[in-house]
Structure formats: structure tokens, C-alpha cells
Amino acid sequence: MINRKNTYKSKSNNETDDKKAKSALQHCSRNNGVRTPGPAVLTALRKPAAFALLICIVATAILGCSGGESLAPVKPERSAEQTDSPVPNPTQVLSGDYIPPVQTPLPLPADEPNPFETELQFNNENFARAFKYKYGSICVSDRSSIAELHLRRCGLMYIDDLTKFGYLRVLDLSENMIYDLSPIEKLTALRKLNLDTNNISDISHLSELTELLELDIDKNNISNLYPLTPLKNMTKLLAHENEIHDLQPLSELTKLQKLGLRSNSISDLRPLSKLVELRELYLHDNSISDVSPLSELHELRRLNLHDNVLSDISELRSLENMERLWIYNNSISDISALAGMKKLSVLYAGMNSIEDISSLAELINLTDVSLHNNAITDVSALEEHVNLKKLDLSGNPIDDSAVEVLCTLTGLEKLDLQRTGISQEGIAAIRAALPKANVLA
Predict the structure, then answer these.
(1) pTM score > 0.85 for this model?
(2) 3-state secondary structure the chain
């Protein structure tokens, strides 16, 4: 059963408390201009903690507005760095609308430097000297902002300090004396890495760089490419002038678009047959005799095969997107496979055994052609190739019968007819017909 007498007494006490609080605030408002609280505030005051806070505030206000000397508390002295915070309105505090000001943290004392703003230190003196020469001094906190380092030709041998730069995307260490690549395996964010011209023989530490897109390891002492097998995102690999003979590790790098393997010991091209996205392939100065594995690389635009042991290039006829082809200094006699390369603009086929160049008749986009030191006698296939800018026919047994055709090549800027059978009169006629061309004879 509900005790109505106690309920009535509690209600009566609450009303009495409301009247007392309201009376106290009204007294203070007459002197200090504080607005009398509304019903919502009075309801909050029924809570003991809120009521106690109000009594403290009112007592302070009464002391401050009563006659005679006030007993206001002594304000502590403030430093120049501190600012006054606004005094909260009691009504705001009680209603929950008061938001305390944000406190700004004090700066570190001058004699205690921020550890993140200290200068980055290096372990290797030579690396430190090279870095500061290129980039000056940096703070520890700046390391994450360095995405590229170009330390070409800095005399570096040890690169342990590279582990301090875990955010690198581009790193150029070409033309140094580096032989140990173990610190690089931790730079897993790398996209481009240039190690051209160093003393590297072991590239096993590169296998962790699975995000790598471009790698240059030209002019080192590398023979084993198997550590590159996991780098399946690579689009560009340059490995000129090494000791490579086995290309099998490259067979799975199917995203490669540019591959350079000049001056190695390569003879077997079969592992390259799956690299169908290749646009540029440089295989000159090797021991290649069979190019049939290249027949499916239809995207090839540039192919360099000079200085090999080629005699048959018939398998290249399917490469109709070819734009630049270098096949000089081989043992080639038949170039009929070139007839379908309508986009061909540059052809270097000198120092072979070529007699017939009729396959060039339809290649009207040719601009630079070198056929020096062959066995060519008839050049009629070149008639009216007005886009030709450079033509080298030196060292061929052509005679004055070629003069009329050569006079139609009005776009020529350079024509080399040295060591040919064309007479002085024929040379004079050509020079008269092509006044803008530099005719060498």
C-alpha cells in the first residue's frame, strides 16, 4: 500500500526546496543580473549533488554582492602563455548546456627536444655524406615523406642505412660499388629500382619486392635470374651486360613490356614465347640462331637482334606491328619476311648477305634505312619512298643505274654512297636533284 502521508511530505519538502533556491537566486539576480531559473532547472536541483553545487554558487554570489568588503577568492597569477577561460553561467551548468573550453597542451620545455624533430643519423659515414650532399639534413619525422632516393654515382659500397626509408617507391643506386643487396629486401614498397653498373652477383634479396614494376640490373656479374620469378608485376627489366644464359626464370613474368638482355650468353629464346605483352625486346650481341620462339609476340614494336648468328628470319613475318628492327651483322640473305611489316620506320640490316630488297617496296613508312655492306645491285624497290630521311647504301655494288631511283627520294637528309660503283657524274646528278641532302660519296 502506498504511504500517501510520506508522499505528500516528500512533495511538500521538494516545493519548499524549490522556493528556497528560487528565493536565493532572485536575491542574487537583483544585484548581479542572474536570470531566475525555470522549472527544468528546479527539477534538476532536486538531486542532492546539483543542489549542493547551487548552494556553493549562491553563497559565493551573496558574498560578492553584499555590503562591505567582499571575501572573493584570490585569483592565481597567470603566465603569459595562459589565457582566461570564460566563467560558466550557473544556469548553463545546471541545465547541461555548458561545454568546457578545450585546453591547449603546453609545449615541451626548450631543454627537452622533440624526439621526432631530431636529425636523422646514419650508421655509415659514406652513406651519410652522399645523402647530405644530395638532400641535406632531415628530421626523423620526415622519413615517411621520402618516396624517392637518387644516389647515382656516390661511391657507395654499403647501403644498410636504406632500411630507415621504408616508404621508398623509387630508388636509384646506379654506378656505385654495391655488392650486398640484403638491406633492400625490406623496402617492399619499391616500384622502380636501378642497380645499373655495380658489383652485384647475387640478387636473391630482390625476391621480396613483389610490388616492383621496373628493375635495371645492367652491367653487373649476374648469371642467375631465378630470384626474379616472384616479381610477377614487373613490366620492365633491363639486364644488359651480365653473364646470363638461362631465361627460364622469365617465362612467368607475363606482364613484361620491355626486356633488355644485350651482351649476355643467350642462345635459347624458348622461355620468351609466353611473354605476349612485350613491346620492346633487346637481344643484340648474344649467340642466337633461332628466332622462331618470337613468332607469337605480336605486340612487338622494337626488336634488336644485331650481332648474333642469324641466317633465317622467316619466323618474324607475323610481327606486323613492328616499327623498329635491328638485324645488322648477322648472316642473313633473305629479308622477304619484312614485307608485311607495314608500320616499319627504322630498319638496320647492314653487314649481311642481302641481294634482294624488293620486300621493302610497300614499306612506305620507312624513314631510316641502313643496308650498308651487303650485295645489293638493284634499289628500284625504294623508288618514291618520299618519307625516307636517312639511307645508307655504302659498301654495295650499285652503279649509275641506281641514280634515277635515288633522285626520286626528295625527303632525304642524308645519303651515304661511299664505296659504291656510282660515278662522279652520277653523284653530281643526285646532289642536283636532292639539294637538301648531305650526299656522302
Answers:
(1) no
(2) CCCHHHHHHHHHHHHHHHHHHHHHHHHHHHHHCCCCCCHHHHHHHCCHHHHHHHHHHHHHHHHHHCCCCCCCCCCCCCCCCCCCCCCCCHHHHHHCCCCCCCCCCCCCCCCCCCHHHCECCCCCHHHHHHHHHHHCCCEHHHHHHCCEEECCCCCCCCCHHHHHCCCCCEEECCCCCCCCCHHHHHCCCCCEEECCCCCCCCCHHHHHCCCCCEEECCCCCCCCCHHHCCCCCCCEEECCCCCCCCCHHHCCCCCCCEEECCCCCCCCCHHHHHCCCCCEEECCCCCCCCCHHHCCCCCCCEEECCCCCCCCCHHHHHCCCCCEEECCCCCCCCCHHHHHCCCCCEEECCCCCCCCCHHHCCCCCCCEEECCCCCCCCCHHHCCCCCCCEEECCCCCCCHHHHHHHCCCCCCCEEECCCCCCCHHHHHHHHHHCCCCEEEC
